[in-house]
Amino acid sequence: MSEAVSPLPDTEAVPVEQRAASQAAADTILYMDGVSVSFDGFKALNNLSLYVVAGELRAIIGPNGAGKTTMMDVITGKTRPDSGQLFFNGSVDLTKLDEAAIANLGIGRKFQKPTVFESQSVLDNLDLALKGNRRVFAGLFARLGKAQLERIDEVLERIALTDFRGQRAGNLSHGQKQWLEIGMLLMQDPELLLVDEPAAGMTDAETEKTAVMLQEIARSHSVVVVEHDMEFIRALDCHVTVLHEGSVLAEGSLDSLQNNRDVIEVYLGR
Amino acid sequence: MLLSNDHGRLLSPLGSRITLGLLLTVAVLVPLLNLAVPPGSFFHVPTYLVSLMGKYLCFALLALSVDLIWGYCGILSLGHGAFFALGGYVMGMHLMRQIGDRGVYGNPDLPDFMVFLDWKELPWYWYGFDSFPFALLMVVLVPGLLALVFGWLAFRSRVTGVYLSIITQAMTFALLLAFFRNDMGFGGNNGLTDFKELLGFNLQADGTRAALFATSAVTLALGYLLCRWIICSKVGRVLIAIRDAESRVRFLGYRVEFYKLFVFVLSAMLAGLAGALYVPQVGIINPSEFSPAQSIEIVIWVAVGGRGYLHGAILGAVLVNYAKTYLTGALPEIWLFFLGGLFIAVTVFLPKGIIGSLSSLRDRLPVAIMRNPFQREVPGE
Amino acid sequence: MPALFKVFRLRLLAALIVLLLPSVALAGLAEDLQALTDKSNAIKAAAVESLAADGHERAVPILQAFLAGRLFEVKEDDRIVIAEDRAAGYRIFDAMTGEALGEVGKRALRKVRINNRLRQAVKAGLGALTLASADPAARRHAADAVFRSAQADMIAPLEAALVRESDPKVAARLGRALAATELATADDKVTRITALKALEAFADPDVRALVSGLLVTDGEGQPAERDADVRAAAAETLKAIEATLAFNGVIASIFQGISLGSVLLLAAIGLAITFGVMGVINMAHGEMVMIGAYTTFAVQEVFRASFPGAFDYSLLVAIPAAFLVTGLVGIGIERGIIRFLYGRPLETLLATWGLSLILQQMVRSIFGPTNREVGNPAWMSGAWEVAGGLTLTYNRLWIILFALMVFALLMALIRFSGYGLQMRAVTQNRPMASSMGIRTGWVDAMTFGLGSGIAGMAGVALSQIDNVSPNLGQGYIIDSFMVVVFGGVGNLWGTLVGALSLGLVNKFLEPYAGAVLGKIIVLVVIILFIQKRPRGLFALRGRAVES
Amino acid sequence: MKSVIRGAIGAAALAVAVTGGTAAQAADDVIKVGVLHSLSGTMAISETTLKDTVLMMVDELNKNGGLLGKRVEAVVVDPASDWPLFAEKARELLEGEEVAAVFGCWTSVSRKSVLPVFEELNGLLFYPVQYEGEESSRNVFYTGAAPNQQAIPAVEYLMSEDGGGAERFVLLGTDYVYPRTTNKILRAFLNDKGISDDDIMENYTPFGHSDWQTIVSDVKGFASQGKKTAVVSTINGDANVPFYKELGNQGIKAEEIPVVAFSVGEEELAGLDTGPLVGHLAAWNYFMSVESDVNDGFIEQWHAFIGNEDRVTNDPMEATYIGFKMWAQAVKQAGSTDVDAVRQAMYGQTVPNLTGGTAVMNANHHLSKPVLIGEIQDDGMIETVWSTDKEVVGDAWSDFIPESAKLTADWTYPWVCGNCEAPKYVTAN
């Protein structure tokens, strides 16, 4: 969708006290306030507010249709919010930027379904993601320097794909593709990583390995993980936000949430 | 040290070496066999074959330009014939100006069709075409500019897939109708014809034809090299990435629209060049080159040869056009059955086209396993 | 015996008179009839006038036969006969007496030639003779013929006819003829000005032609009408008529736009299924339309050969026949080719293009390369004269109706039938549908068959307004794609709205820009529109769209 | 280096394959004639008939002993309504097949496309369709009508008392050279006759135009301005059927607004119910309905050849017939198929028209033919209502276009030129 959707002022959705961007805390890397999105009458996000602090590892859970993926779409510029505020690093208004600009600001994203460039090699995939000049004419004459090659090797090591360097990405196993995508995120070296269901379809061993990988990454980046798998969330051991029907239902540690009545009702009730 | 640009491998796959070798050989051999070998000898190539093969080479260049955007970037243009035709018209305008007062009405300023339709003076957009360098510039600029405007609008609004294909079709259809109009000043349905000479050489002389043929072959070879150079560069890999997963590329921070625009404009320019080489060899340019059916045929050449293989596009163009030449002469009443059948058979039995099927055959051989795992692979080769 | 002689002479004279009286008339008839075969059209025209003026009872059949091209001369004895078509030749009747003369071969007769000038004369003559006909349609035609001829001696018969006329429509036509005749022939100004006023009620092109004829100036700047008052009245009448005509013109444009839109809709709706719903870039769609049109031709051939009397109903048979034939062809194509290509939409483009070449050539081989005649049934010929200058042609009206009916039926089928449910299930989620026990292969084949069958029905409609030739489909394929894409792929309502709006835009542009430029503008508008809404008029918005 | 050698072998193989595929051995006892008519694509609808006509004529010639004691063989190719392909096929016929003459082309653009080829290779083309004139090539014989053999007589007829005395004209045409030129000539002619530009409406539509609602309404409007109006149609090919259908349905009667067409014959009407169109006119040099013994024979021969009694004959077929007969006579007279000898023998060659009288080939490569005007009948035939007293000489250059009025086409000594203001050679006297 590319056309700018005219903001539909939703009287209910607009928060009573409008907080200006400058008032956001300096260490808030992602500031979402009162964001609403609707598709043909269906409210995918309903007055959603969420704040992520720099360096934080945050997990987001919620049942199907809670708006997790739409939230990611909004942050990365794929979907324009109908209303609400969205700031990155305190002052950059994300609602005015497109995907490429947002990516270049330092927000990386991993999709729900592993999306790597299947017809290209693992090496090429990482090379494409490597932080650098994204212009066409630079690309025509670009060369990989020694430092960059070393960086690639380092990431290959981290995602355990060193031996698959020259393989077509399409030939990798499902789990390996997930890692490759995480590796691509690392190559981008973003300030904020949005990771959508990294453990989906993985074996237990792979899941464990992935959790370790993310924790490691979280040491140097802010990470937001969307996940279904409670075991995995537990392994991440971080602050958790529960989404329901497009807004935040509860927040806190996993243990506290597991005793929250609302959360139990949403997951088990009905 | 590995390069991000793989230009060292520009010629490494067998296909490209054969292609270039062939092109350069025919560029020398065919004119030689035409001019130096006496008629009647077994090795003599008659002039009509020179022109015919020259025409095939122009089509091959056109197919190459389509493969560049379709095979490598996933942009299916069903209107590429428009760029070809525009290049052709530019060359046609230059050739018309070269006629001077040798037209049937002997008017030194106006082409015959303008005299005929009562035009009093040369319209402004015909100015400058007497100059060959200017015309040559326009050959790439006019199609390039149209592609720039059209592409900028389309790619910026992220028109993709069939929507893009259909509006490219609308574009060429609109141009077809526009060029049909006699009021446009491009000769209407009859188009531009009755050319006399190019750069002072008589277009009907064997030498000129041979030279045009050689030029076409060399241009095609250069075009091929240019395309390979792009494909082997990082840009090439971004293009393939766009073809395979466009939104992923955006989230990596690439401005997909600029990449698409770059390759689309370049492709349009190559198509324009092909058109410009085509016109002096066939002797006429008229609006039927804009017809959507023509553009669809170009896509079919590429599909038959093998989408995503540059030499496949060349092979497809030559093969399908040769089949057309042969069948319309040998089986004039039923040739469409064969051609139509060929298209269906290729899609059903050789979904990757001829080259694609050949190379997947090659991939199945044990040799493939032995290949150096660290060697970069350009998808499609 | 002078007395006896005298008596004898008297008797002879009486007998002669008795014999001669009708034969004077008969001689006149024979002379006029003979004059009809003259080389000079002027003499022929005079003969027609004289025939009509004499009012002999044979004049009407003779003139009617002359008009219909059924008046012949027997080559052997130059006798003039009226002929009726028979399989082997003609059945002939003596023109003078109506006596049957048996059957002769076509070569034995020489046609009595007629041309436009004579046709006009004959119609005028027949008009005068048939004002009192029992058939209201004939009286109406007669009134119109008199309107055109505008001869002074018709005023009295017109007035008489007007008095006894019971049909109000015919009475109006009589009034129009009377006013026109008075305007043309009356001597006094007042009658003529009154006639002009009366004509204001009949705002049609013929009346406008008549009235503006008064205002035309000749080479020296002299107006055709010498009387300034009549000219002024004529100018006023003309103004009133033109205002009505202009209003009717707008209505006509709307009608024409909807009509063009309905043609586009018919052509596109099948594609909206095969392309829009199934994702097959079906370049052979136009050929399905063409096969539908040829099916119509074949059905009509059967009717012509076996049931000539029921020819008017041939289309009612052709519609289901075309649906079945093209539907089966479509199923065959789907099973034979398309099903191997799902998930590779661009390859379907290639294969169906090859297919379209084959189908065109096949039809060319079977039916020949030239146009085939598809007749219009009587109920689709002619036009409905709603008001002056506003004639809605019946074939277009029926096609609009037909298009909307097809659309409604299709929507109902998809929405309410079990098959429709399965089809929607398969197009939305194939693996899920398959796992629920829906035979997806069957549904695919049926859906492609349905799209093709609808294209075939479109062919029946198009055969009524366009060439039935192997190229028929080529003319519609691009427009069809434009409509589907403009409306939004996968949305049938979009196709409806898209088709009608493109039709209307085209027709409103045409008077200003001309047909070619108008079409170019529409194409450019589509291109620009797609920039604004990259997924057409009725695009789905949401997450599912881009996945 | 190895790859380059491999490439060379491949190239040579390709070249041989291409040559072997198309070059044919010309046997000594055969005279070849090329048939260059589209058998597929948009023009197949019209051109296929002409291909069959040539085949029929060849057949007849062979039955009568051939030509110069040799058998005549027709080489049929399909240029597929693709104009550059016409040039390619022409070259193939002349250079590859070495045909003695070519019968072909329908559209002007196809003729323009092959013209340079015929001139370069000194071939012979017989072009059988009415066209816009403004051309006289040494290598082409034009057996169809020039504008002065169709348009002017037709308009004169419309203005006459018999034709209805039209004073206002609508010129409808397909947007290409033939209608544009014809209408330009007609406008000049009408202005000459005192009809002002206000009384002339010109309208052009694209090829294959199928929606005539607006234009037919416009014609009705234009005709209701108090003057007798006639329509001159140069609408081409496929667009005619929808045009006439609309005309019939909107009730435009021939007595009120007669339409005279130059590209409509029995063939074009074959797809139509002509009941509502009776009286509309066509101007051409031949109608199937013309009664003459030669015509009856021709129609019979055609029906026998094509195996279908319903097929009609038309003007371009007659033009093909005349062209073929003339060529055969010229070959006999020249005693050879040599192009230059045959060309010389062509001038003054006569063939009886199917409609009576004789067609004569003039030194400007155009024929003298009678002009007929016919009215459409309800059986789809066109019946002659008027004809010229004697044959009209086809003009290569129109007298009504100032630039071309001064040009002369005469390929005999001393002119020897298709477009000259003065003879090439000065006569010695």
From TrEMBL, chain B:
Transmembrane stretches, start-end: 20-37, 43-62, 69-91, 132-155, 162-180, 210-231, 258-278, 298-322, 334-355
Entry's Gene Ontology cellular component terms: plasma membrane
Keywords, ordered alphabetically: Cell membrane, Membrane, Transmembrane, Transmembrane helix
Pfam families the UniProt entry points to: BPD_transp_2
MF GO annotations: branched-chain amino acid transmembrane transporter activity
Main location: membrane
Membrane topology, from the record: Multi-pass membrane protein
Keyword Hydrolase: no
CDD domains: TM_PBP1_LivM_like
InterPro entries: ABC_transp_permease (IPR001851), ABC_transptr_urea_perm_UrtC (IPR017778), LivM-like (IPR043428)
Compartment list: Cell membrane
The keyword Cell membrane appears for this protein: yes
NCBIfam families tied to this protein: urea_trans_UrtC
Name this polypeptide is given: Urea ABC transporter permease subunit UrtC
UniProtKB/TrEMBL annotation, chain C:
Keyword Iron tagged: no
Signal peptide boundaries: 1-27
Keyword field: Amino-acid transport, Cell membrane, Membrane, Signal, Transmembrane, Transmembrane helix, Transport
Biological-process GO terms, alphabetical: amino acid transport
InterPro entries, per the entry: ABC_transp_permease, ABC_UrtB_bac, ARM-like, BCAA_transport_permease
GO cellular component terms attached to this protein's record: plasma membrane
Pfam families, per the entry: BPD_transp_2 (PF02653)
UniProt xrefs under Gene3D superfamilies: Leucine-rich Repeat Variant
Chief place of localization: membrane
Membrane topology term: Multi-pass membrane protein
UniProt protein name: Urea ABC transporter permease subunit UrtB
Species lineage: Bacteria, Pseudomonadati, Pseudomonadota, Alphaproteobacteria, Rhodospirillales
Underlying gene: urtB
UniProtKB/TrEMBL annotation, chain D:
Pfam families in UniProt: Peripla_BP_5 (PF13433)
Matches recorded under CDD domains: PBP1_FmdD-like (cd06355)
Tree of life domain: Bacteria
InterPro entries given in the database record: ABC_urea-bd_UrtA, Peripla_BP_I
Alphabetic keyword roster: Signal
Leader peptide range in chain numbering: 1-26
Name the record gives this protein: Urea ABC transporter substrate-binding protein
Organism: Pelagibius litoralis
